[in-house]
Design brief:
8 helices, alpha/beta, Rossmann fold, seven-stranded parallel β-sheet, about 260 residues, single chain, 7 strands, about 45% helix, 2 domains
């Protein structure tokens, strides 16, 4: 049984077909929410939906193919969710991976792609769902962000800059939407287990190391005090806290979910 009170609420999750997004969808269903989630990869979206329906056959669930960088598709997703479940009270923005590049080797088009992804993957869903959220009791927006927003890495210069901008945007939206009863917060993740890390593990040179050993060495190199990568479910717990009435007096803030990797107080 979930510790988070979402019974009777409608929650939206973008990028919900894998990783942190999928873990968030699952935890919202466990907490009694009706959940509409989207993803760009149709096969992965359908596979996620099948798995969720097997585990939660009575769940009120909508899986919708949508590219969050297409405003028309996002608006259609908002209308489909509204038709299926009624107005949303919760919006979880979770989309986008990191780009490895330095300032010297980041092209103009790469900058534009990265800035568009990190900003408009939030801007378009917020625009589409804000009319539903406005005035709803306990309305909340949560954005999945990265520790790079506060602790940039030179080999991820474009992503670090874009993540910092998103952190600023969260605070700006929190101020602007407060009089509509909408709280806006985010989480800052460090290294979290994902398909990307699994692929790097499969391509590892140290074939004698298993997953736990390999990720333990990675955590040691990255100087993560907890000595391991985070789990998608751990990030999802922080997301649900910020989306729930348990954080009713919190807005414009970010929770650090990095295993102690942050070097900032």
């Amino acid at each position: 049984m979930s510790a988070f009170p979402f019974a009777g609420k409608v929650a939206i999750v973008t990028g919900g077909s894998s990783g942190i997004g999928l873990a968030t969808v699952e935890q919202l269903l466990q907490a009694g929410a009706s959940v509409a989630f989207c993803g760009r990869n149709v096969e992965r979206l359908q596979a996620a939906e099948r798995g969720l329906r097997e585990c939660y056959p009575a769940a009120r669930l909508l899986a919708y193919p949508c590219d969050v960088l297409d405003a028309t598709q996002v608006q259609a997703f908002a209308e489909a969710s509204l038709s299926a479940f009624g107005p949303a009270q919760v919006l979880i923005n979770n989309a986008g991976q990191g780009r490895v590049s330095t300032f010297a080797d980041t092209t103009d088009s790469a900058w534009q792609e990265e800035l568009q992804l990190k900003f408009f993957s939030v801007i378009y869903p917020v625009r589409a769902f804000q009319p539903q959220l406005s005035g709803q009791a306990g309305a909340a927006i949560v954005c999945v962000n990265s520790l790079l927003a506060s602790q940039p890495e030179p080999h991820m210069v474009a992503t670090s800059a874009a993540r910092a901008g998103l952190k600023n945007l969260v605070r700006s939206m929190a101020f602007e939407f407060a009089d509509q009863g909408i709280r806006v917060n985010g989480i800052l993740i460090g290294l979290v287990e994902s398909g990307q890390w699994r692929r790097r593990f499969e391509a590892r040179e140290e074939r004698e190391l298993d997953w736990q050993q390999w990720t333990g060495q990675l955590a040691a190199r990255k100087q993560i005090p907890l000595g391991r990568l985070g789990l998608p479910s751990e990030a999802a717990h922080a997301i649900l806290f910020l989306a729930s009435p348990l954080s009713a007096y919190t807005t414009g803030s970010h929770i650090d979910v990095s295993g102690g990797l942050s070097r900032h107080a």
